[in-house]
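Quick one:
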Amino acid sequence: MAKFNPQGTFTAIVTPFCADRDRTVDLIALKRLVEQQIAGGVTGLVVCGTTGEASTLDDDEYEQVVGSVVAFAGGRVPVIAGTGSNSTKKTIATTQKACSLGVDGVLVVTPYYNKPTQAGMIAHFSQVADQSAAPVVLYNVPGRTGVNLLPATVAELAKHPNIVALKEAAGSLEQVQEIVMRTEFSFPILSGEDALCVPTYAVGGRGVISVVSNVAPALTVALWNDFAAGRVAEAGRGQVRLLPLIKLLFSEPNPQPAKMAMHLLGIMEPVARLPLIDATAATREGLAAEMRRLGLLGNA
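Output:
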C-alpha cells in the first residue's frame, strides 16, 4: 500500500452525483475520476473534504465514497479522508471509521461555528491524533470555519507524533512564513489555495491539496515538480498560466464550477447537492474557453 508522505500534489476530489432527484453517488464516475487523477501523476487523493461535499453525505454514503476511493486507488497512491467536524467526539468517531476503511491519512478541519479558542483547538486536535490509527493533517480554512489556527498553535501541535502536516488556506503568505519559522522548516505545509501554490513553495511549503487538479492534474503536478527540481521560473510561469482557470473555479461556490469542468471533460454529471446548485451557463462558457486555451479540451 502507498504510504502518505506529506509532500507533492494531492487532489481534493469532488464527489460525483447522478442527475437524478436524490443526487445519488455515482460510483462509475468516481472510478473514472480516480483513474484520471492517477494518470495525471498526482501524489495522492483527498476524499470527502470541502470540495467533496462531505457535509451533504450521510454516514452510509461517506463510508461508500471513502471505501470506494481506497479500492479504486488500489494502493497506487495514498488516500486521505476528510474527517473533521465541530464536535471532537464525532471527529474521533469519523476518523476511526475512515481508518477502518483503509485510508493512509486523515484531514481534520478546525472546528467550525462554535469558534473554539487556540487552547481548545490544541485539545481538540490532540485528542483526535491520540485516537487515530492514521497520520493527521491539520486543515486551516478560516474563511469557512470562522477560526484561524495561529502559527504558535500550529507549532505546538506539530510536536504531536501523529500530526504530520498542515493544509493552510488562510490566504496569507505571511502566516505561512511564520509557521515555517516557528517550526524551523521541519513541519510540512501544503497550500490550500490554488492561486498561492508556487508562492507557498517559495517560502517553505512542500506541496498542495488542490481543487484545480481535478480539472488539470498534470498541469498542477508540474508546478510542484518544476519547483522541486529547481525550475523555479518555469513553476512561476505555470502558476500564472493556471490563474484564469483557478479564478473561474472559484467564481461560484466550490465545487459547482469544478463539477461543470469535469462534465466538460466527460467524467461526470455537473450536479451538486443542495444548498449548492449547478454552475451557471456563463460559468460553463468561461470554463470551456479557458480549458480549450490550456489544451484540456478540443476545439468543439
